[in-house]
Amino acid sequence: MTHKPEPTVPVALTDEQWRERLDPLEYAVLRQAGTEPAFSGRFVSHRKVGIYSCRGCGAELFRSETKFDSHCGWPSFFSPLAGEKVIERTDTSHGMTRVEVLCANCGSHLGHVFSGEGYNTPTDLRYCINSVCLTFEAADAPSD
Q: Domains (ranges, CATH) in the chain?
Protein backbone atom coordinates (compact mmCIF):
# COMPACT_ATOMS: atom_id res chain seq x y z
CA MET A 1 0.00 0.00 0.00
CA THR A 2 1.31 3.45 -0.92
CA HIS A 3 1.73 5.70 2.12
CA LYS A 4 -0.26 8.91 1.86
CA PRO A 5 0.15 11.79 4.29
CA GLU A 6 -2.71 12.23 6.72
CA PRO A 7 -4.85 15.29 5.98
CA THR A 8 -4.94 18.09 8.53
CA VAL A 9 -8.25 17.64 10.35
CA PRO A 10 -9.91 18.93 13.55
CA VAL A 11 -9.93 15.53 15.34
CA ALA A 12 -6.33 14.30 15.47
CA LEU A 13 -5.71 11.29 17.69
CA THR A 14 -2.55 9.26 18.14
CA ASP A 15 -2.34 5.78 16.66
CA GLU A 16 -2.62 4.37 20.20
CA GLN A 17 -5.78 6.39 20.86
CA TRP A 18 -7.34 5.13 17.59
CA ARG A 19 -6.50 1.52 18.52
CA GLU A 20 -8.23 2.00 21.89
CA ARG A 21 -11.30 3.59 20.29
CA LEU A 22 -11.82 1.14 17.40
CA ASP A 23 -12.09 -2.64 17.16
CA PRO A 24 -9.53 -4.40 14.89
CA LEU A 25 -11.68 -4.35 11.72
CA GLU A 26 -12.71 -0.72 12.26
CA TYR A 27 -9.06 0.22 12.77
CA ALA A 28 -7.93 -1.69 9.65
CA VAL A 29 -10.49 0.08 7.47
CA LEU A 30 -10.74 3.56 9.02
CA ARG A 31 -7.06 4.09 9.84
CA GLN A 32 -5.22 1.78 7.40
CA ALA A 33 -7.47 2.23 4.33
CA GLY A 34 -8.59 -1.39 4.34
CA THR A 35 -11.86 -2.72 2.93
CA GLU A 36 -14.47 -4.91 4.54
CA PRO A 37 -15.56 -7.95 2.50
CA ALA A 38 -18.28 -7.23 -0.08
CA PHE A 39 -21.87 -7.84 1.05
CA SER A 40 -20.74 -8.31 4.68
CA GLY A 41 -21.58 -4.90 6.14
CA ARG A 42 -24.71 -4.15 8.11
CA PHE A 43 -25.68 -1.14 5.98
CA VAL A 44 -25.53 -2.72 2.50
CA SER A 45 -29.32 -3.31 2.35
CA HIS A 46 -30.25 -0.87 5.12
CA ARG A 47 -33.43 1.09 4.30
CA LYS A 48 -34.23 3.22 7.39
CA VAL A 49 -34.55 7.01 7.15
CA GLY A 50 -31.88 8.98 8.99
CA ILE A 51 -28.25 10.09 9.05
CA TYR A 52 -25.07 8.05 8.55
CA SER A 53 -22.10 9.33 10.56
CA CYS A 54 -18.39 8.55 10.84
CA ARG A 55 -17.69 5.70 13.28
CA GLY A 56 -14.33 7.30 14.09
CA CYS A 57 -15.54 10.70 15.28
CA GLY A 58 -19.33 10.93 14.93
CA ALA A 59 -19.35 13.58 12.17
CA GLU A 60 -22.52 13.43 10.07
CA LEU A 61 -21.65 12.34 6.52
CA PHE A 62 -24.61 11.05 4.46
CA ARG A 63 -28.42 11.23 4.48
CA SER A 64 -30.49 8.11 3.80
CA GLU A 65 -32.22 10.02 0.97
CA THR A 66 -28.96 9.85 -1.03
CA LYS A 67 -28.42 6.10 -0.50
CA PHE A 68 -29.16 3.84 -3.45
CA ASP A 69 -28.84 0.17 -4.34
CA SER A 70 -25.81 -0.19 -6.61
CA HIS A 71 -25.45 -3.98 -6.12
CA CYS A 72 -21.69 -3.47 -5.55
CA GLY A 73 -21.54 -5.02 -2.06
CA TRP A 74 -21.09 -1.82 -0.05
CA PRO A 75 -23.47 0.99 0.88
CA SER A 76 -23.65 3.53 -1.96
CA PHE A 77 -24.61 7.19 -1.81
CA PHE A 78 -24.85 9.72 -4.66
CA SER A 79 -23.80 12.68 -2.51
CA PRO A 80 -22.33 13.46 0.92
CA LEU A 81 -24.37 15.54 3.37
CA ALA A 82 -22.29 18.56 2.28
CA GLY A 83 -19.10 18.91 0.25
CA GLU A 84 -17.03 19.95 3.24
CA LYS A 85 -17.98 16.75 5.15
CA VAL A 86 -15.55 14.60 3.13
CA ILE A 87 -12.09 14.90 1.64
CA GLU A 88 -11.51 13.38 -1.78
CA ARG A 89 -7.97 12.55 -2.86
CA THR A 90 -6.24 10.48 -5.51
CA ASP A 91 -5.47 6.90 -4.48
CA THR A 92 -2.98 4.99 -6.65
CA SER A 93 -2.77 1.87 -4.46
CA HIS A 94 -3.35 -1.63 -5.82
CA GLY A 95 -2.16 -0.70 -9.33
CA MET A 96 -5.12 1.54 -10.19
CA THR A 97 -6.14 5.17 -9.87
CA ARG A 98 -9.26 5.90 -7.81
CA VAL A 99 -10.61 8.72 -5.67
CA GLU A 100 -10.43 7.94 -1.95
CA VAL A 101 -13.06 9.38 0.40
CA LEU A 102 -12.02 10.43 3.92
CA CYS A 103 -13.92 11.99 6.80
CA ALA A 104 -13.04 15.71 6.81
CA ASN A 105 -13.36 15.82 10.60
CA CYS A 106 -10.96 13.01 11.57
CA GLY A 107 -9.23 11.92 8.35
CA SER A 108 -10.53 8.35 8.53
CA HIS A 109 -10.74 6.32 5.32
CA LEU A 110 -14.38 5.71 4.35
CA GLY A 111 -14.17 4.21 0.87
CA HIS A 112 -13.99 5.54 -2.70
CA VAL A 113 -16.12 7.64 -5.06
CA PHE A 114 -16.68 6.65 -8.68
CA SER A 115 -18.24 8.63 -11.52
CA GLY A 116 -19.67 7.93 -14.94
CA GLU A 117 -20.99 4.46 -14.17
CA GLY A 118 -24.46 5.18 -15.55
CA TYR A 119 -26.51 4.90 -12.36
CA ASN A 120 -29.81 6.77 -12.53
CA THR A 121 -28.91 9.28 -9.78
CA PRO A 122 -28.85 13.09 -9.79
CA THR A 123 -25.04 13.31 -9.60
CA ASP A 124 -23.77 10.26 -11.57
CA LEU A 125 -21.50 9.60 -8.57
CA ARG A 126 -21.27 6.50 -6.37
CA TYR A 127 -19.74 7.03 -2.95
CA CYS A 128 -18.89 3.41 -2.14
CA ILE A 129 -18.53 3.43 1.66
CA ASN A 130 -17.59 0.62 4.04
CA SER A 131 -20.40 -0.15 6.54
CA VAL A 132 -17.83 -0.54 9.31
CA CYS A 133 -16.97 3.16 8.88
CA LEU A 134 -20.51 4.27 9.64
CA THR A 135 -23.01 4.59 12.45
CA PHE A 136 -26.68 5.34 11.83
CA GLU A 137 -29.23 7.47 13.64
CA ALA A 138 -32.80 6.92 12.55
CA ALA A 139 -34.94 10.00 12.04
CA ASP A 140 -37.39 8.71 14.66
CA ALA A 141 -35.10 6.88 17.10
CA PRO A 142 -31.81 7.20 19.03
CA SER A 143 -28.48 5.94 17.58
CA ASP A 144 -28.19 2.34 16.40
A: 15-138 (2.170.150.20)
Q: Helix (H, G, I), strand (E, B), or coil: what is residue 91?
A: strand
Catalytic, out of 103, 106, 128, 133 = 128
128 as an active site residue: the answer is: yes
**This prediction's pTM:** 0.89
Number of H helices, E strands in the chain: 2, 9
* 3-state SS assignment for residue 138: strand
DSSP 3-state helix, strand, coil percentages of the chain (rounded to 5)? 20, 30, 50
Residues 58-87: pLDDT tens digits? 999 999 999 999 999 999 999 999 889 999
